[in-house]
Amino acid sequence: MRFVGLLCAAMLVSACMQDLGAAGDVLARDAAKGVVNNVVQTRFPGVNAAPYTDCIIDNATGSEIVTIAEAAVLGVTSNTTNLVVEIAGRPDTVRCALNNSLGLGGLGL
Questions:
Q1: Full-model pTM
Q2: Per-residue DSSP letters for 28-57?
Q3: How do residues 73-91 score in pLDDT, each as one tens digit?
Q4: Domain definitions of the chain by residue range
Q5: Are 76 and 35 in contact, with CB atoms under 8 Å apart?
Q6: Whole-angstrom Cα distance, residue 79 to residue 107?
Q7: 10-residue block means of pLDDT along the chain (109 residues)?
Q8: What contacts 61, CB < 8 A, 6 or more positions away?
């Protein structure tokens, strides 16, 4: 019964995000950032997650952001973690994280 409730909540969140347009995008990105931040901190203890979190979100597709944001309601699964790690390994994400961690974010290197 609890699973059904969580599933309904996730579908409702997803539908609301899509119906709200730009506001839904902001809500989804904020929810996804919390999930990504936790995944990065768990997978890479001792690493400052902030520079990586923003880069992962910025290099995720809209559907990936919604999928990650749903984990804020349903809980993080191995699929969520794998998705975050996959996005983190993309060349643009790696470049962004490197620039941010070195303080070069505004230089566009």
A1: 0.73
A2: HHHHHHHHHHHHHHHHSTTS--HHHHHHHH
A3: 999 999 999 999 999 999 9
A4: 2-107
A5: yes
A6: 34
A7: 47 52 77 95 87 94 95 95 96 92 56
A8: none
| Two structure tokens written together for 71 | 């984990």
pLDDT at 8: 47
Residue with tokens 């566009």: 108
- Joined together, the tokens standing for residue 88 give 């983190």
Backbone φ, ψ for residue 47 (5° rounding): -90, 135
Q: Work out the angle at residue 100's Cα, subtended by the Cα atoms of residues 102 and 46, and round it to the nearest 5 degrees.
A: 80
Alpha-carbon span 83 to 40, nearest angstrom: 12
Residue 82 to residues 5, 50, 65, 76, 106, Cα–Cα distance (Å): 25, 19, 13, 10, 29
C-alpha separations of 34 from 30, 39, 76, 86, 108 in Å: 7, 9, 11, 17, 25
